[in-house]
Amino acid sequence: MSHTLANIHDPSHDFASRREAEVWSNLKAGDKNALAFFYTKYLKSLYNYGMKVSRDAGLVEDCIQDLFIGIWNSHSRLGDVTNVKSYLYKSLRTKIIYKLSLLSRTPLRDIDSFNFALSHTAHYITQRVNADVSDKIRQFIETLSPKQKEAIFLIYYEELSYEEAATIMDLKVKTVYNLIHLAIAKLRQNKTRLSPSVLFSLF
């Protein structure tokens, strides 16, 4: 961990009752504990999301560190942010995709991956349904495009709005609606006997 992030106490109690927009204002004013608050609160979820964008754990960890160090180094020039989670997710996604582009010498527009693995909850659910349904679940997942997987993850797992998901993915809101609509249409065609809300919780 960097020197910038290592020497700060856990500020969870200091900001627990504050709105995030207010804590962000503290960060802009140079409060290092405000930075640590966001780092502590979102580190695990950022890592989880980042590992779905790229399976390179070292790259994801480096990008998270770069993200927060960059925020601190430019704190006096930061704009107002009302949804910090969306801001952090979009920033991390941009960093990871940029590094993947450099490493693979692939144009940014052609970097399109989102890795999916069944969660512990998903494993529990699939153990309670017959093998045929479990196979259909996995077959359904394999038919989804990377962008469909990402949209489902952000909306159903991270509980973000369509507008927030669109901002993170750098897409139009209508496009995100279409991605989800097409995924649900595929689900109904597969007749897995699981509702979209249950199936998408597997992410």
What's the helix-strand series?
Answer: HHHHHHHHHHHH
Number of domains: 2
Number of strands: 0
Give the CATH topology of the largest domain.
Rna Polymerase Sigma Factor, Chain: A
Q: How much of the sequence is in beta strands?
A: under 5%
Q: What is the average of the pLDDT values?
A: 81
Distance between the termini: 29 Å
Spatial extent as radius of gyration: 19 Å
Class of the largest domain in CATH? Mainly Alpha
Q: How large is the count of helical segments? A: 12
Report the CATH superfamily of the largest domain.
RNA polymerase sigma factor, region 2, helix turn helix motif
CATH architecture of the largest domain: Orthogonal Bundle
Helix and strand topology:
Blueprint: H1 3-6, H2 12-15, H3 20-28, H4 32-53, H5 57-73, H6 84-104, H7 120-127, H8 131-143, H9 146-157, H10 162-169, H11 173-190, H12 196-200
Helix pairs in contact: 3-4, 4-5, 4-6, 5-6, 6-10, 9-10, 9-11, 10-11
Keywords:
single chain, about 200 residues, mainly alpha, Rna Polymerase Sigma Factor, Chain: A, Arc Repressor Mutant, subunit A, 2 domains, 12 helices, about 70% helix, about 0% strand, globular
Report a brief summary of the structure.
This protein is mainly α. Helix content is 69%, strand content 0%.
